[in-house]
Amino acid sequence: MLNLTMPTFVQVIEFLGTFAFAISGIRLASAKKFDWFGAYVVGVATAVGGGTFRDMMLGVTPFWMTDSIYLVCSGMALLCVIMFSKYLIRLNNTFFIFDAIGLALFTVVGVQKTLDCGYHLWVAIIMGTMTGAAGGVIRDVFINEIPLIFRKEIYAMACVIGGIVYGICNIMDMNMHFTHILCGTSVFLVRILAVKFHICLPTLKGGEE
Amino acid sequence: MLNLTMPTFVQVIEFLGTFAFAISGIRLASAKKFDWFGAYVVGVATAVGGGTFRDMMLGVTPFWMTDSIYLVCSGMALLCVIMFSKYLIRLNNTFFIFDAIGLALFTVVGVQKTLDCGYHLWVAIIMGTMTGAAGGVIRDVFINEIPLIFRKEIYAMACVIGGIVYGICNIMDMNMHFTHILCGTSVFLVRILAVKFHICLPTLKGGEE
Amino acid sequence: MLNLTMPTFVQVIEFLGTFAFAISGIRLASAKKFDWFGAYVVGVATAVGGGTFRDMMLGVTPFWMTDSIYLVCSGMALLCVIMFSKYLIRLNNTFFIFDAIGLALFTVVGVQKTLDCGYHLWVAIIMGTMTGAAGGVIRDVFINEIPLIFRKEIYAMACVIGGIVYGICNIMDMNMHFTHILCGTSVFLVRILAVKFHICLPTLKGGEE
Questions:
Q1: Which residue segment(s) compose the domain that B180 sits in?
Q2: Neighbouring residues of B26: CB distance < 8 A, sequence distance ≥ 6
Q3: Has residue A2 been placed in a domain?
Q4: Mean pLDDT throughout C123-133?
């Protein structure tokens, strides 16, 4: 998003994040025997779905409609899965790191964009979380599974914590660049630590039957 | 919604309705072993999902983004389920009444807001129904079940009937306060009677295979 | 859409397309024992869901909110299924033709509307595809099945090809009427040929487990 004004480092990170998100969608779709087109749609939805809902709620044009890089990036992810599917399993750890980086960056972008639109911080935290995590929910709805992030290691919660860090930095009147880095780092660290130590939120008991 | 201008009685009703909707989402999520965060998301989606889609279609900012009460209310519902899950089953009838009250109130709010935006009555009836019933559909998509309201006792149809009552009141040039009460009461009564006497709409035969 | 300014022929075609889409939703819903209301909702969602998401992304009012013909048409489809369900199976080929016509027309409408809003051609191709194919995805999410179009004969891909034909016509500075006809015809032919010769896109291997 806004990739004409942001420095190149962020663009590279964002590309890697989009790529990792798209790969995760495409691989889950391929496990369900989707065809190339279906897998691409699931990959795109995973990568841009969260940001699209955020933008529709904010009342602005979905970010991917003004810059084709996100769809191109998802297309490259599809090519990779088609050509190198056998070798991708070995790269699981790499993709996991990319995914965590993407989650962190998407959260920062979502929080910042919502604040720029003039909303309260609590709305921004929700929108940051949605930017990072809603794509995975849409992916799981498409492949007809119960959304993974509602049951496994801390994922969306990492975005919420990152958003709170953002808010604390704001209250302390910190420089924006530093705020972004602290917010993103906290999302990244929470996610990495959660998976390394299998930290899950408690589940509920006492369902309807 | 609009809780600065409406009288306190409506706010209390709306709070109870949101609470009942959130409880229903959280309890169904807990039956699927969702974690606290996942259950909260399902609860929020049940409570505000319908109104969010309504507002996106009307081209206005989703109502919960300007007032945090809806998310706070859903959070309190989560706390209740966590702390009192054992005792909640005994309260099933209470929640059913709350849910019917919420359905009635959400319908009135949805119809009124759509008319205020300058749309025809038939659009308002659809939006009122969506406000009341779409949250339950989103909930069931998240927990990967076929939406309940498409198969069980009259639910969304009660909203449609309420919307028609609203329209009749309008044609008869009734006072707005009275129109709201008649519309809400008819939704509430249809829903209560449908469940009490197990009134279902007929189902279709002749599926594709 | 825009049915005041378009000639009657397009209106007839659009009516048939909406009807065929609604029929497909209602019949799949009836196979899942939905009640009349649920079946109607699934039918409407199939018929207007794609265009609704398109319009929300474009930032305009969903097309069906300004013209009741789409909901009336879906209601007539419901009546047909209720009354003639036994005879509908014999008409499968007729519905398949209607569906392909609807797909073609919806694609043309979606591409044109997006270009009219000032977006690039690649956005218009995506929006044309979404107008034609997203309704079927929403239908399958509602009935809790893996979206059919992600796995079966070429469907959404036909819309993409039609969009590309539209773009080529544009580059060649062709007259708009002719462009529409070429675009629609190519969607229709690709779809018909794909089903006749069972042309599928390749599926992916190398899923996550």
A1: 8-196
A2: A204, B39, B40, B42, B43, B77, B78, B81
A3: no
A4: 94
